[in-house]
Amino acid sequence: MSGFKTGFLWGGAVAAHQLEGGWQEGGKGISVADVMTAGANGVPREITDGVLPGKNYPNHEAIDFYHRYKDDLKLFAEMGYTCFRTSIAWTRIFPKGDELEPNEAGLQFYDSLFDECLKLGIEPVITLSHFEMPYHLVTEYGGWRNRKLIDFFVRFAQVVFARYQHKVKYWMTFNEINNQANFHEDFAPFTNSGLKYQPGEDREPVMYQAAHYELVASALAVKAGREINPSLQIGCMIAMCPIYPLTCAPGDMMMAMNAMHRRYWFTDVHVRGKYPQHLLNYFERRGFALDITEEDKQALTQGCVDYIGFSYYMSFATKATDDNPQLDYDETTSLVSNPYVQKSDWGWQIDPVGLRYSLNWFYDHYQLPLFIVENGFGAIDVLESDGTVNDQYRIDYLAAHIKEMKKAVVEDGVDLMGYTPWGCIDLVSAGTGEMKKRYGFIYVDKDNEGNGTLARSRKKSFNWYKEVIASNGEKL
Ligand code: P53
C-alpha cells in the first residue's frame, strides 16, 4: 500500500490566463495578464499601459484551450486524472470587475468546462484569482490598495459559488498570495494585487495594505461560500519555498526564522483568522499605519480556510550579515545559493526533500489537510521528428518529489488530499511569458514568438504519469 488515502486526488494544474486564450471572446474583459509582454530568462515581462500595438502578448492566444478544452480534457482523462485544477478568469464573469451583474456568456463557458470534466470523472479544483484580475480595477481603483476591491471580489466569489456549487466542491481564493512578499520587483505586486508603484514610493506598507484587503476578501468569500453551500471546501493557496539557513550559525538560523515569518504570515491569517504577533510588532517598529478595522478583524475570524493548498518548486537559503543587525528579510537581497542542490535552467533550486520538509512544516503549524496544487519542472523540451519528447529529466524531478511526498504521508503522518503537477499541458510561463519554459505531460506546438500549429502530442512523461496514477503512486 502506498499510504495515499482512498480518493486521493491525482491530476494536473493550470490557470485560465496561461492556457485559455480567447482574450476577447464571450465578452471577456482585459485582465492584468493581457497587458504583460513576453520576457525571457532574466528579462522581465513588460507591463504596458493597456494593450499596445506591435507588442507580443502571449496570453492573448495562449494555447487556445478556450476552443480546445474538450480534446485536452480527454487527454487528461486518458492519464487517469481524478481532478483538474484551473481558475475562473474573473474577466469572463465581470469583464471590468465593478459591474453589478455577471456576464452570462462567461458563466456558460465554465458550465460547459465543468460539465465536460465531470463527464470524464474529473473533479474540478478551482482558484478564484490566479494572476488575472480585471485591468480596469488597476486603472480605475489602483488595484488592491483600494478597499473597494473587497466588495468586487466577494461579489464575484458569491456569483460563482452559487452558480457552480453542485459542480465544484474544491476552491481556493488567491493564488500564491504570498508572492508579493517580493515587493521590490514589479511582477508580484502587479500579478497578485494589480499594484503599480510611483517612482520612489515606499512599497512595503502598500504591499501589506493590499494583502490585508485580500485576506479580508478571502475570509468574506469563505464565509459566503459556506452560507451558500456548507459542503464546499475552500482553501488558501501559498507559494511554499522553505527558507533554510545557509549554515548552522545561530545568526543564520534566526535569519531563516525571520525570513519564514515574512513570507508565510499570510497562512497564519488564512488559517487562524488573526495576525501573528511578530508581524504586528514589525508594523509598529517600521511605523506602518495600516487600515485594519475592528470589522476586518471580525471578518478574518469568521472566514478561516478548510485546507491549505500550496505550490512547491524549490527551496531558498539565507544568511545573516553584519549590515543587517535586525535580521530583516528582503527577498531581492537576502537569498543565497544553496551549495547542496542543483538548479534548473531558470535557476530554480531542485530540492525534493524540501517538499517533505514543507509538508511537515505546514502540518506542524496548522494541522489542516494539505493539497499540493503545483509542483513541476520548467525545462526546454525537444520535439523529435517522430513526434515524441524524451523528457526523462521531468520524470526524474517528479518521481523524486512524489517519493518525498509519500514519506511525508506514510512516515510522518501528514494529511494530504491530492497532488496536481503544474502546467500539465504546456502553457505560457507566468514569470517569463515564454512558451519555451515547458512543464507539460502534453507538448504544445508553439514557440516564444507565437508561431506553431498548437498541435498537442504526448511526451514520455505522459505514459509515466498514467502509470503513477494507476498504481496510486506506487510505480515511479
Ligand atoms: P513560471 C514564482 C515562484 C514560484 C511559483 O512559474 C511561481 C512564481 C511566479 O513565476 O508561480 C507559480 O511559469 C504560479 C503559476 C506559474 C508557476 O508557478 O514562472 O502559480 O502561475 O506558472 C510556474 O515558470
UniProtKB/TrEMBL annotation:
PROSITE patterns hit by this protein: GLYCOSYL_HYDROL_F1_1, GLYCOSYL_HYDROL_F1_2
UniProt keyword RNA-binding present: no
Pfam families found in the cross-reference section: Glyco_hydro_1
Record flagged with keyword Hydrolase: yes
Active-site residues per Swiss-Prot or TrEMBL entry: 374 (nucleophile)
Gene designation per UniProt: bglB
Family per similarity comment: Belongs to the glycosyl hydrolase 1 family.
Name this polypeptide is given: 6-phospho-beta-glucosidase
Keywords of the record: Glycosidase, Hydrolase
